[in-house]
Specification:
heterodimer; A: mainly alpha; Cytochrome C Oxidase, Chain A; two-stranded antiparallel ribbon; 74% helix; B: 230 residues; mainly alpha; Cytochrome Bc1 Complex, Chain D, domain 2; 2 domains; 11 helices; 0% strand
Chain lengths: 488, 230
């Protein structure tokens, strides 16, 4: 710690790039999502056009948000945090810049291929085999950068965020490779579409591998690296250390071990073996412990600083983000209980659950992190605290609309599907249950509109902050900045 | 980081990035190995009497995947009375033996389709793909007019057929099972032969006219696939 002077010499070029990429893919992915929400209420919006139809937009929405927005946020945080906690300037800048460029290129290509219908049909792994290869290359670039940074580090002890980033890299790599195994048919026969492939696994096996991937993609993309982000930015924003080292230790090892066992809860009452379903349910419930360990650890980091929430919208986003993490990681295991799953599966309650995690936990945490990073990277102040405050409340209201409507919708439709009349016959046609959803789908679309509106406010705020930094160049550095320098 | 005295092993691991990486990797592999691997061979066995997808059905299945029909429709009937009453017998693992990929879906915005061939007909599908709300008032399914314009991609069907036959040993050409084409032209002929029965049941004259020219439209293939789902 003696060389404090040199530690402040960071290279933020790539982190800045990933922030812009998070803004773009965020607004793009959420706009597609909102279009889908409205299409459910007004099917005329499908407009009889393939590339506007719900069926093709749905994978585009999930890929753009999960990979485009979330991973951009994760990478931005990595290129920012790693320099600071490893106490070394960003190594291999050319590799890091190529990583940024390739990541965005493959997302653009992915968007076009999905609209074109080049889908493998596997959820969150829809992109065709040739893009899978590009994804692997992109991922290895990140891994290479990660291990180069670890090798060059000047701080021997790895901060908890780094453990989570490493788990993200290794976990996603393993899951993606095994789930993506397929045989491109063109290489066998030299006919047909060159991008077409056949899955290596069939039927029930394919389902088991897919949900081992699908569930843990949630774990290692939407949870693990977001915990990494929270473990860095919550203590920074509160300006005090993590509540408990021991708790962070046990919840980390507990989480990465247990998560991989919970995948079968996506296949309850399916044709996978019964013992696997039961094991999946039990481990889903066990998963509450390490998840809540992290949540409690993150929230208690605010101990003695709770009054900060009154005035600091960035702390609000981060703290409410972690609160939603606790909420979603309780809701998920409840849905994994077989008797609850019998009603919840195939309904909108699952969609509601996913969005508690995606909008509340992932969205708020990444936006909070970007709010924290951008003024420090550009050496300026946040353009408008008041705008961020309003954004927070509008988006929170949006999420409340979203999950309450989806709760009611899911339980209603799940119950209607099994309601019988006095003779024991099914009481409702499937269409009855679709018509019953319209009010809830409408409310959800309102919630989504509010969240997206808040995201535009976020973009504007970040944009103006960057612009303000540009116009300030050469002028005096504002007085608020040294807060970071002290903590770094 | 406070509380340094706890866990000397962990303290050692978190100073050695390679060891940390290896420890993480070992730990995350265990769940998958225990849960996925043991039943792998058993799950892959087809149920008695299961036939591979014919060339035309395979074409329909490719369309189903291209359009992500599985985003809104499941192919998994769970063993509940409410489900078997609505959709038919509950699904068995061996029925999926030739499904690459599986298409169980995760959200029923529309109904399950695993046995849709038992209760919907060719002309119902034809009208429904043209205009879903005319057939099912209140439905929010998109219309698929392009199914009536685009022709079946024979090359890709042939490629998949030969791949699953030669690489995965799917039993084409055995007993009552559907035939596979050895050449692109043979597969094309198989598709045309099989399409006749579907086209005959359809109303749209343009589909019939195209068929007379040897041109099989996507709508014929997707209906053949759905009719097979029993």
């Amino acid at each position: 710690m003696a060389q404090t002077q040199s530690f402040t010499d960071y290279d933020y070029s790539v982190a800045k790039g990933f922030v812009i990429s998070a803004l773009f893919w965020g607004v793009f992915g959420m706009s597609v999502g909102l279009t889908l929400a409205f299409e459910l209420v007004f099917p005329e919006l499908n407009a009889d056009l393939p590339w506007l139809s719900f069926n093709r937009l749905r994978p585009l929405h999930t890929n753009a948000v999960i990979f485009g927005f979330t991973l951009s946020g994760v990478f931005a945080a990595w290129y920012y945090i790693s320099q600071r906690v490893l106490k070394v300037r960003m190594v291999l800048p050319a590799l890091a810049k190529t990583h940024l460029a390739l990541f965005n290129l493959l997302l653009v290509l992915g968007a076009f291929t999905l609209l074109d219908g080049q889908s493998s049909s596997k959820e969150y792994h829809e992109m065709p085999w040739w893009l899978d290869i590009v994804i692997v290359v992109m991922w290895l670039m990140w891994g290479a950068h990660m291990f180069a940074m670890l090798g060059a580090r000047r701080e021997k002890t790895l901060y908890v965020s780094i453990w989570y980033f490493m788990a993200c890299f290794l976990g996603v790599g393993m899951l993606f490779l095994f789930n993506g195994l397929a045989i491109p048919t063109w290489f066998v026969t030299n006919t047909g579409n060159w991008w077409h492939s056949v899955s290596m696994y069939a039927g029930t096996n394919d389902a088991q591998v897919q949900w081992w991937f699908g569930h843990n993609a949630v774990a290692f993309v939407l949870t693990v690296p977001i915990v990494a982000i929270s473990y860095y930015f919550i203590p920074k924003q509160a300006n005090q250390p993590i509540y408990s080292y021991r708790l962070s230790l046990w919840s980390f090892w507990g989480l990465i071990f247990v998560y991989l066992w919970a995948g079968p809860h996506h296949m309850m009452y399916s044709t996978i073996p019964d013992w696997v379903q039961t094991l999946g349910m039990v481990f889903s419930l066990v998963l509450i412990i390490p998840s809540w360990g992290s949540m409690i650890n993150l929230l208690l980091t605010m101990s003695g600083r709770w009054e900060q929430l009154k005035t600091d919208p960035i702390a609000k986003l981060l703290v409410i983000g972690s609160t939603f993490y606790g909420f979603a990681t309780l809701e998920g295991p409840v849905q994994a209980i077989k008797s609850v799953n019998a009603i919840a599966h195939f309904t909108d309650w699952i969609i509601g659950h996913v969005h508690n995690g995606a909008l509340g936990w992932v969205g708020f945490t990444i936006m909070g992190a970007i709010f924290h990073m951008v003024p420090r990277m550009y050496n300026t102040r946040l353009y408008s605290v008041r705008l961020a405050e309003n954004q927070f409340w509008i988006q929170t209201l949006g999420i409340v609309f979203y999950f309450t409507s989806m709760w009611v919708a899911g339980v209603t439709q799940g119950s209607m599907w099994r309601t019988t009349d006095q003779f024991g016959n099914l009481a409702y046609s499937f269409l009855d249950t679709v018509r019953a959803m319209v009010p809830y789908w409408s409310l959800r679309a309102v919630g989504g509109t509010l969240y997206l509106l808040g995201f535009w406010m976020f973009i504007f705020n970040i944009w103006m902050t960057i612009r303000q930094a540009r116009t300030q160049q050469g002028a005096e550095v504002p007085a608020e900045v040294p807060v970071t320098a002290k903590a770094a | 980081m406070s509380n340094k005295q706890s866990g000397s092993i962990f303290e050692f691991i978190e100073k050695n990035s390679l060891l940390l990486g290896v420890s993480i990797f070992v730990l995350i592999t265990i769940g998958g190995i225990v849960e996925v691997v043991p039943s792998f061979t058993q799950n892959a066995r087809p149920i008695t009497g299961l036939k591979p997808y014919s060339a035309l059905e395979l074409a329909g299945r490719q369309i189903y995947i291209r359009e992500s029909c599985n985003a809104c429709h499941s192919q998994l009937i769970r063993p509940f009375k409410a489900e078997t009453d609505r959709y038919g017998a509950y699904s068995l693992s061996g029925e999926y033996a030739y499904d690459r990929p599986f298409l169980w879906g995760s959200r029923r915005t529309g109904p399950d389709l695993h046995r849709v061939g038992n209760y919907r007909t060719t002309d119902w599908h034809e009208a429904h793909f043209k205009n879903a709300r005319q057939v099912s008032p209140g439905s929010n399914m998109p219309n698929f007019p392009w199914f009536f314009e685009d022709s079946v991609d024979v090359g890709t069907v042939h490629a998949e057929l030969v791949t699953v036959r030669d690489v995965f040993g799917v039993p084409y050409d055995q007993g009552e099972n559907p035939k596979s084409g050895n050449t692109l032209e043979e597969t094309h002929q198989l598709i045309i032969e099989e399409a006749g029965a579907v086209v005959e049941q359809m109303k749209d004259q343009s589909i019939k006219d195209a068929y007379a020219q040897g041109d099989v439209k996507d709508i014929v293939a997707i209906i053949a696939y759905l009719n097979r789902m029993k």
